[in-house]
Amino acid sequence: MGWLFIGLSIICSVSIAHLLKSADKRSLRILNILSVNYLVAMLIGFLLSDAEVIRSVPPASTLIFSSLIGAIFILNFLLYGRSLVQNGIGVSVASMRLSLLIPIIASVFFYDEILADFRYIGVTLVFLSIYFLLPNPQIKGQGTLSSRMLLLILFVFTGIADAALKIYEREFQLQLSEYAFLSILFGSAFILSLIILEIRKALNFSAREVLFGIILGVVNLYSSFFLILALQQLNGAIVFSVTNIGNVLAGALVGFFIWNDQVSTKQKAGLALAVLSILLLVIN
Predict the structure, then answer these.
(1) How far is residue 15 from each of residues 89, 142, 164, 215, 247, measured CA to CA in Å?
(2) C-alpha separations of 161 from 73, 131, 164, 177, 217 in Å
(3) What Cα–Cα distance (Å) separates residue 283 from each residue in 11, 85, 167, 176, 278?
(4) Distance CA 85, CA 92 (A)
(5) Among 133, 195, 211, 244, which one is least packed by beta carbons within 10 Å?
(6) Cα–Cα nearest to 108, from 217, 197, 10, 241
(7) Mean pLDDT for all residues in the chain
(8) What is the reported pLDDT for 246?
């Protein structure tokens, strides 16, 4: 079942990129959509949480951890939405997925998860394939961040967010169910989004923004939920490697077939390496 959960997480993650890109094409406000998205994800997580967990009060450390990760989630999503506009789906997804280095380090060095020799080769090929898949972004003078700086921050924040799911799986799972943890995480992100909207005097929502937010909330919640389930059954380094390269492959296909992104010879080589790396990683 672990591989099925990985596949479902990938489908949800790529759907997020497609939804945000579609929202920008319709000139919808990304932060407003994200706010609705986090409210929906929080409510679903709360409703599906174990009743005994809801009635109990989690330790302060668990609440603080969940809230901090929630803040990182929304900041990362805001930057992700901007990068999708400036860099496109392919480069944004690929750059974010380079961040698998951070959770892999956490899994191997902090939690002593061992990889077979050929799987280390697969992990190495993951980084090499993403390098080939990554276009050379043009610097666009939009906002206060260059395209390259956006990609760098996305790398760091996405890595921290992914590593946080591994930390939860190892350190906090007995204190909070998956749904309860995600409910607190998305709840803190929702509160932060409301504060930002109030500061911007933009605390109003169109019908389309609400609709996009509801759909995004469902796929956003289950992107993380399925990833946590996969981590419970498979080696963390394998889960993060396959998930990230799968997101890059799926993102490239969505960009090519739906958004008419061009695929260079270098990127085709990256796709071939990506397939080889996945084969090495899934071999028992």
Answers:
(1) 11, 25, 22, 10, 10
(2) 7, 21, 5, 18, 17
(3) 22, 37, 26, 33, 9
(4) 9
(5) 195
(6) 241
(7) 81
(8) 84
Residue 56: which region, alpha, beta or left (left: phi > 0; alpha: psi -120 to 50)? beta
Q: What proportion of the chain, given as a percentage, has pLDDT over 70? A: 87
* Domains contained in the chain, number: 1
* Residues 119-144 pLDDT 10s: 678 778 877 877 776 655 554 444 44
SS3 content of the chain, % helix, strand, coil (to 5): 80, 0, 20
Nearest to 161 by CA among 234, 96, 213: 96
Look up the domain containing 63 and give its range. Answer: 2-282
> Strand runs (DSSP E) across 12-122, as ranges?
none
Higher pLDDT, 165 or 237: 165
Q: What is residue 175's predicted lDDT score, i.e. its pLDDT?
A: 76
For tokens 């999708």, what's the residue?
Answer: 84
For 24-42, b/e burial (b = at least 16 CB within 10 A) is beeebbbbbbbbbbbbbbb
Backbone angles phi, psi at 37, to 5 degrees: -60, -45
- Token output for 41: 């994800």
**Residue count (the chain):** 284
**Terminal Cα-to-Cα distance of the chain (whole angstroms):** 14
